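Encode chain A's predicted structure.
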Amino acid sequence: MTNTPLTHSQQLQDRFGRQVAVRLAGGAAELPYEVTERLRAARVQALARRKTVSTQSAPVLAAAGGMTFGDERIGFWGRIGSALPLIALVAGLVVIHTIENDRRATEVAEVDAALLTDDLPPAAYADPGFVQFLKSSRQ
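Encoded structure for chain A:
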């Protein structure tokens, strides 16, 4: 493990912890022997747990390597589950594109059919409002 510089808040927390420890130690002299022994045993257990947690957590994070979520690795099914929304979005865009292309092709086919089947004067084909005329005549 590398030693990292403490931030200001961590320094304040350490200072507060030391002050509390001094006050508790001052009052411990007045406690009976039985209570002080229980406190000492609890302190030893707390330190032992703290050391095992800190020594185990660093290698776990370093060994994970890939994508992590907290302390857990994302497995095969997790990756598939996170990719499903993207796949659904792409499929939806493809379906929308196909439907819009079909709709445009149908509109062009209707205009072409109207041009070929109607008896119109040649000037009507050159008129800029011809498509609008066809749409209004259908309705």
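The longest helix spans residues 76-117.
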